[in-house]
Write a structure and sequence with these properties.
Length: 486
């Protein structure tokens, strides 16, 4: 889910070329690619690979081709296999205008792979499948960008243990470099996941990660504006997952520039210019994004904060008279110095014996960690705040917001697995409503996210879950909640 307002969309597949995989993610149950026939190539642009027009047995090959087509369509793969072998051996490019023989081979061999139990034989089948992909690169030079993407997709979802993450990443990267803004939607979700993993594991540097994060963002934006029909629905699925996952790079200072943060987070202040928490949050995020204190919007936020919200923070280690006051924890937080602020706040928390102050320090730590997408640790600190200030609605609100923003980390960003994270979020917001100071915000969150709840039909299709049933949410949330269906 997008921060504060993720739209939960129904995912539909984007198909392209002859056999385009579904736009899916590791968190989605694997669905097989569907095959479509390509538009025939013009005569002057035939595949360089053998076709039946070059064979003295043209009629027999065509007969086998037609029979194979029928068997593959009916998913009678055992009957299709010997027919496919005949056609593939003599005319892998069919009539030179289409790629169907290779696509059938990939489909038939994948069926054999799924049924095979012998480890060595499974490895042999994967080798054959990848050999077909390599031949496709030679036979269809105009489509190599697509072929690299589809090969990477197959490694990720069908044969994950037969290639390293770096090998999968490189295949997708080649696809994107070749296709550019025309990259198909099915590439973007698995590539984004690998991009983040490669960066976090220091397998690639910041410059490369920035380049491809920006590229994914532009491709998705363009797809949402220009695509139509099923293609558009495919980009909506990607927007619900890849676009949200890319927010994880916000935890790395300097990854995104000031304009990124202004475009994305200024609304926090604009929506409620009288809310001191909103002012502090917006100002802090923009400073984290290296926005200058002289920026007009930051000056506006700061002026409002100074006039309406500033409180004097007591320093537990006061300096001698005449000595410049060191930056306070709030100064560090306000200026987006998150690492320094965390150290300062944790020090204050450990040294304080006042429950109200310890609660405030713990809450501030939880807020920073939430912005860094460190949800598990953030929840720990929010719960510490509740230990020192039981029933504090603000802390419950924060935990609820963490849960609600976890659609892309606990699911694909759309559909059942991403929608059910709203349930534990609502548990927290219901508790926040018991605190008069937070009741209004909590109710607004409940109203806002109620439209994204799964339906009774969704519940039936996912284990016959009924409204009010007890339901265990996995991933980092790991909580039992109450099902809410509309």
């Amino acid at each position: 889910m997008k921060k504060r307002s993720l739209l939960l969309l129904t995912g539909i597949v984007l198909f392209f070329w002859a056999c385009t995989p579904k736009t899916t993610q590791k968190t989605v149950e694997k669905e097989e690619p569907k095959t479509e026939t390509t538009k025939p190539k013009p005569e002057e642009n035939l595949s360089p690979c053998p076709n039946w027009n070059d064979s003295p047995n043209k009629d027999a090959i065509i007969d086998s081709y037609v029979l194979c087509k029928d068997e593959v369509k009916a998913k009678n793969y055992e009957k299709a296999f010997p027919l496919w072998q005949k056609v593939y051996a003599a005319a892998p490019a069919a009539d030179g205008k289409r790629n169907t023989v290779y696509n059938w081979g990939l489909e038939i061999l994948n069926d054999q792979f799924k049924k095979e139990t012998d480890t060595a034989k499974k490895k042999g089948l994967v080798d054959q499948i990848m050999k077909l992909y390599d031949e496709m690169l030679e036979c269809y030079p105009d489509d190599v960008g697509y072929i690299y993407g589809r090969k990477g997709f197959d490694y990720v979802y069908n044969y994950p243990s037969y290639a390293t993450d770096k090998e999968k990443y490189d295949l997708f990267k080649k696809s994107m470099d070749l296709k550019g803004m025309e990259t198909q939607a099915f590439v973007l979700n698995p590539f984004t996941d690998l991009l983040i993993t490669q960066f976090n594991n220091k397998a690639i540097g910041m410059a490369e990660a920035q380049k491809y994060a920006m590229m994914v963002t532009k491709i998705v934006s363009n797809g949402l504006k220009t695509a139509k029909g099923n293609e558009l629905e495919g980009f909506k699925v990607v927007d619900g997952y890849a676009s949200v996952r890319l927010e994880e790079f916000e935890a790395t200072k300097g990854f995104y520039d000031c304009n990124y943060y202004k475009n994305k987070y200024l609304y926090i202040f604009e929506e409620d210019k009288n809310d001191c928490d909103a002012m502090m949050e917006a100002y802090s995020i923009l400073r984290w994004g290296n926005c200058s204190e002289t920026d007009a919007k930051l000056r506006e936020i700061n002026a409002s904060y100074q006039a309406n919200c500033v409180v004097v923070e007591t320093d537990p280690n006061p300096t001698k008279p005449g000595t410049p006051r060191p930056p306070s924890c709030n100064d560090m937080l306000k200026n987006g110095q998150y690492a320094e602020a965390l150290n300062c706040l944790e020090d204050r928390y450990n040294k304080s014996s006042d429950n109200s102050k310890k609660a405030a320090y713990a809450y501030s730590i939880a807020s920073i960690m939430t912005r860094q997408k460190r949800f598990s640790k953030a929840r720990e600190w929010a719960n510490k705040a509740l230990e020192h200030r039981p029933g504090w609605g603000k802390a419950y609100l924060l935990i609820g917001n963490m849960y609600a923003s976890s659609g892309a980390s606990c699911g694909p960003g759309t559909g059942w697995k991403s929608q059910v994270v709203i349930w534990p979020a609502m548990d927290m917001w219901e508790k926040a409503k018991q605190d008069g100071e937070s009741a209004g915000k909590a109710q607004r969150q409940i109203n806002k996210y109620s439209q994204y709840l799964p339906t009774k039909e969704d519940g039936f299709m996912n284990g016959n879950v009924k409204d009010g049933d007890s339901y265990k949410i996995g991933c980092w949330i790991n909580r039992t909640t109450r099902a809410r269906l509309k």
